[in-house]
Design brief:
Layout (H helix, E strand, L loop, with lengths): L2 H6 L14 H11 L12 E5 L1 H16 L19 H16 L6 H9 L9 E8 L4 H20 L3 E5 L6 H8 L5 E10 L17 H4 L6
Antiparallel strand pairs: 1-2, 2-4, 3-4
Length: 222
């Protein structure tokens, strides 16, 4: 798969099969992804790869906390308090497009919660990765991190795999640390599901839109 095809076919997959992912593939993906640029070659990324019993321990612990209505809040602020346009409209559209596919009516909080719970099984993917960063690093290192994460998702496509990056895991940083042995000196950046798409999962029919170039690009030649 060439780079253009890998980028164009990258999607946030929300349902995976139980087909195992070879650990050699995971290692190859992470190794090549670390070729991402970073300021002064600091390489600020850290990853914990979970499979089998380790993955289940984490997902069970987080789902138990959610079902007990425990309050968990992220250490980082991923979204603004109020979205300006056009970002608010885009956010609402993708949410209702997804809910429409899976049969969730506006205001049906019970079904919304069930759908959101799927985040915390890594959408049944056989591999879940928790990405972390040292607490004292600043925004430049977080920007570097984004480039590396994109590499992971594109490299996964080259391996015939799909992914879903998940900011939602940040809310459960205390459980993640306790379950996965991650020190307090590290902040949870995100989780990521890696596996083979379940084509029977209705949510995977979602096709998100992208704004045309004229909405966000200026070409200046004088």
């Amino acid at each position: 798969m060439n780079a253009f095809d890998a980028i164009a076919t990258r999607r946030s997959v929300r349902g995976f099969t139980s087909q195992p992912v070879p650990m050699d593939s995971v290692k190859r993906i992470l190794e090549v992804s670390a070729r991402a640029p970073s300021g002064t070659n600091t390489q600020p990324w850290l990853a914990t790869v979970l499979t089998g019993g380790a993955l289940k321990r984490l997902t069970d612990a987080v789902l138990a906390a959610r079902h007990a209505n425990e309050e968990h809040v992220s250490e980082t602020k991923f979204y603004p308090d109020k979205f300006p346009e056009p970002y608010l409209a885009r956010r609402r559209k993708v949410g209702w497009d997804l809910y429409g596919l899976v049969g969730i009516a506006k205001g049906d909080m019970a079904k919304m919660r069930v759908q959101h719970d799927k985040n915390f099984t890594f959408f049944d993917a056989p591999v879940g990765v928790i990405f972390t960063i040292e607490r004292e690093l600043e925004i430049g290192s977080w920007l570097d991190y984004g480039m590396m994460l994109q590499n992971v998702m594109i490299a996964a496509r080259a391996e015939g795999l799909d992914t879903c990056p998940q900011a939602a895991w940040g809310d459960y940083h205390k459980i993640i640390r306790a379950t996965c042995g991650i020190p307090d000196s590290q902040v949870i950046v995100c989780g990521m599901a890696i596996g083979y798409e379940d084509t029977s999962e209705v949510a995977n029919a979602l096709v998100t839109e992208r704004a045309p170039l004229e909405d966000w690009v200026r070409f200046v030649d004088e």
